[in-house]
């Protein structure tokens, strides 16, 4: 079912495509966020790396540097190691950051610990190695101490030097008046006790939640050092969400286009073929790729083109043949009328009237044959299938043919009366009548009729004669309209060459076939038509009915 429906494949393809795009978007967000988180961690520590590097550089000797590092470790409550630079393996990007006096942050997702590597000013042989596995407010409140320690060396110029080092920080640092800050009395009291405070601010803007660290300045009672606001890391900022959404929609649109382009190509081929057909060119055929709706459409179009082409050709042949067949009786009628006009003998005139009447009857018969053939050739006629006793139809044709006093011997090897087949009685009668009439016309003496249902569930009727038979090379051509053979089956035998064409078309619309071979019993031609004995019932039920039918031969 799935492979036979192009729409199910498109819907399934869309579902798979949406899943793949969603997975792609999720992985892309994770990769981008990992990189953003790394850049965020490094941006927060870059300023600290500069300040610590400046603080250590001010120490005159190795011992004091070690003591300074030890005090910083106690203040931050984090292990800080003063190590040789050759003891730490750095990548090219990390070495570049160290040269630019920026921090290197290595994040361990399993232990959620950050390892911070800091370079030292004028000391390329040493590095600071910090392990930060648990950042609390204590560490955050200790950060302003390092900035204040740096500003101690520039009394009265604190604001100017803060502006000079601002580019090392990703967040603002400034000295502000306490009165300009949105602080309550409790927070102001804590500042007067030389305690740093942390301010959390929620905002509906793009920055979201921010943190500011406010620390008192020992030399001033009205001004404080403010670090921040520092935005918290946003895992899904608007720009990232919009970018991923647009990219996902673009990938999805490409995938949908890839799913629909084969349909568009096939529709274009169908449109091209239809335009050719509209212009009168019926030679274009569509490739039948697969068994889906487009494959069915292509197959139906090809069948329609074949049928239309065959109808047009049949119409041309019919017009040529009809014009030819009509000339003879019309010419005889015209000749008879002319003869009557110049003849006074009543008997002769009566003879001509009888001949004209026969020609008119021949014209009526020809017209009836043409109309029947045209109806069967143009499209499927209105068929009313019903259960029919095969014996009754064969016996009816036998009685009707014997009533014509043909002088030929007709035999019926009838099936049991209980053999029922689903068929259109009127057209089945026409088939048997045409075949028997054809056999009577060309046989020497005997005609044999038979019928039944074989083991494959196919009904059949068979008409044989003891005539000269039909050469094998002519057996297919004899079903063409107005076809006559050059041997014994000539115009002198009568007929218009439409009887067998009608039989062929009825067999086609019955879903069966008609074949010609040599009669093994009589030696002449044998015509056999086969079609499904049942159209709606199960074959097993039909076989059971045949098995239960034990009536003797009615003949």
UniProtKB/TrEMBL annotation:
Entry keyword set: ATP-binding, Cell membrane, Kinase, Membrane, Nucleotide-binding, Phosphoprotein, Transferase, Transmembrane, Transmembrane helix
Question: HAMP domain: which residues?
Answer: 261-313
Catalytic activity reported: ATP + protein L-histidine = ADP + protein N-phospho-L-histidine
**For this UniProt entry, what's an example GO CC term?**
plasma membrane
The EC number(s) attached to this protein equal: 2.7.13.3
Membrane topology designation:
Multi-pass membrane protein
Any one GO molecular function term? phosphorelay sensor kinase activity
Cite the SMART domains for this sequence: HAMP (SM00304), HATPase_c (SM00387), HisKA (SM00388)
For this entry, the protein name equals: histidine kinase
Q: What parts of the sequence cross the membrane? A: 6-29, 240-260
Instruction: Work out whether the entry's keyword set contains Transferase.
Output: yes
Q: Where is the Histidine kinase domain?
A: 321-535
Q: Point out the coiled-coil segments of this chain.
A: none
Query: Where is it located?
Result: Cell membrane
């Amino acid at each position: 079912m799935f492979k036979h429906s192009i729409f199910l494949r498109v819907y399934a393809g869309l579902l798979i495509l949406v899943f793949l795009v969603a997975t792609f978007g999720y992985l892309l967000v994770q990769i981008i966020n990992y990189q953003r988180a790394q850049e965020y961690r490094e941006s927060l520590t870059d300023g600290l790396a500069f300040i610590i590097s400046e603080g250590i550089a001010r120490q005159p000797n190795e011992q004091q540097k070690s003591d300074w590092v030890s005090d910083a470790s106690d203040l931050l409550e984090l292990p800080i190691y003063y190590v040789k630079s050759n003891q730490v393996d750095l990548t090219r990007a990390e070495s570049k950051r160290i040269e630019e006096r920026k921090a290197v942050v290595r994040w361990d997702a399993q232990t959620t610990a950050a390892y911070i590597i800091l370079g030292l000013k004028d000391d390329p042989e040493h590095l600071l190695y910090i392990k930060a596995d648990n950042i609390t407010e204590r560490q955050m409140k200790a950060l302003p101490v390092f900035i204040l320690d740096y500003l101690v060396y520039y009394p009265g110029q604190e604001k100017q030097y803060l502006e000079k080092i601002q580019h090392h920080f990703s967040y603002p640092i400034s000295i502000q008046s306490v009165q300009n800050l949105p602080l309550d009395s409790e927070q102001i009291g804590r500042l007067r006790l030389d305690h740093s405070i942390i301010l959390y601010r929620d905002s509906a803007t793009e920055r979201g939640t921010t943190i500011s660290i406010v620390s008192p300045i020992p030399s001033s009672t009205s001004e404080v050092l403010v670090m921040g606001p520092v935005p918290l890391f946003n895992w899904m900022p608007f720009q990232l969400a919009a970018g991923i959404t647009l990219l996902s929609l673009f990938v999805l649109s490409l995938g949908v286009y890839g799913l629909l382009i084969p349909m568009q190509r096939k529709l274009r081929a169908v449109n091209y073929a239809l335009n050719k057909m509209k212009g009168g060119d019926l030679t274009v055929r569509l490739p039948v790729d697969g068994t889906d709706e487009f494959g069915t459409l292509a197959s139906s179009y090809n069948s329609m083109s074949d049928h239309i082409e065959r109808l047009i050709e049949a119409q041309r042949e019919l017009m040529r043949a009809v014009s030819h067949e009509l000339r003879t009786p019309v010419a005889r009628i015209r000749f008879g009328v002319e003869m009557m006009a110049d003849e006074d003998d009543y008997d002769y005139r009566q003879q001509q009237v009888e001949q004209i009447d026969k020609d008119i009857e021949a014209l009526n018969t020809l017209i009836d044959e043409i109309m029947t053939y045209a109806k069967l050739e143009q499209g499927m006629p209105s068929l009313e299938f019903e259960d029919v006793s095969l014996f009754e139809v064969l016996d009816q044709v036998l009685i009707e043919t014997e009533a014509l006093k043909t002088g030929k011997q007709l035999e019926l090897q009838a099936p049991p009366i209980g053999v029922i087949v689903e068929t259109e009685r009127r057209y089945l009668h026409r088939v048997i009548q045409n075949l028997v009439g054809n056999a009577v016309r060309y046989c020497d003496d005997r005609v044999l009729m038979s019928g039944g249902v074989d083991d494959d569930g196919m009904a059949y009727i068979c008409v044989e004669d003891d005539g000269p038979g039909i050469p094998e090379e002519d057996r297919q051509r004899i079903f063409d309209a107005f076809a006559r053979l050059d041997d014994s089956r000539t115009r002198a035998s009568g007929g218009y060459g439409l009887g067998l064409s009608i039989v062929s078309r009825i067999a086609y619309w019955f879903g069966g076939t008609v074949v010609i071979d040599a009669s093994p019993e009589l030696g002449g031609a044998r015509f056999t038509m086969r079609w499904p004995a049942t159209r709606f019932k199960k074959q097993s039920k039909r076989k059971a009915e045949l098995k239960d039918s034990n009536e003797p031969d009615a003949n």
